[in-house]
Amino acid sequence: MKRDFLYNEIAGNIANKIKAGILKAGERLPSIRILSKEHGISMNTAKRIYLELEAQSLVQSKPQSGFFVSPLSYLKLTLPEPSAPLSVSNNTEPNDLINDVYSTMGRNDLTLFSIGVPSGSLLPLARLKKEIVLATRELKEGGTEYETLQGNVKLRRMIAARSLSWEGNLKESDIITSHGCMNALSLCLMALTKPGDTLALESPCYPGILQLAVSLGLNVVEVATHPVSGIDIHALKKLLPKINVCLLVPNFNTPLGYCMPDESKKEIVALLSMANIPLIEDDTYGDIYFGAERPKCCKSFDMDGNVLWCSSISKTLAPGYRVGWVAPGKYKDQILKLKLVHSLSATSVVHEAVANFLMTGRYDNHLRRFRKTLQENYQHYALAIAEYFPYGTKISRPQGGLALWVEFPKGIDTVELYKYALKKQISVAPGRMFTLQNQFQNCLRLCIGLQWTDDLRLKLRQLGNLAKIFLNNNFS
Amino acid sequence: MKRDFLYNEIAGNIANKIKAGILKAGERLPSIRILSKEHGISMNTAKRIYLELEAQSLVQSKPQSGFFVSPLSYLKLTLPEPSAPLSVSNNTEPNDLINDVYSTMGRNDLTLFSIGVPSGSLLPLARLKKEIVLATRELKEGGTEYETLQGNVKLRRMIAARSLSWEGNLKESDIITSHGCMNALSLCLMALTKPGDTLALESPCYPGILQLAVSLGLNVVEVATHPVSGIDIHALKKLLPKINVCLLVPNFNTPLGYCMPDESKKEIVALLSMANIPLIEDDTYGDIYFGAERPKCCKSFDMDGNVLWCSSISKTLAPGYRVGWVAPGKYKDQILKLKLVHSLSATSVVHEAVANFLMTGRYDNHLRRFRKTLQENYQHYALAIAEYFPYGTKISRPQGGLALWVEFPKGIDTVELYKYALKKQISVAPGRMFTLQNQFQNCLRLCIGLQWTDDLRLKLRQLGNLAKIFLNNNFS
Question: CA-CA distance, A62 to A439, in Å (whole number)?
Answer without folding.
Answer: 40
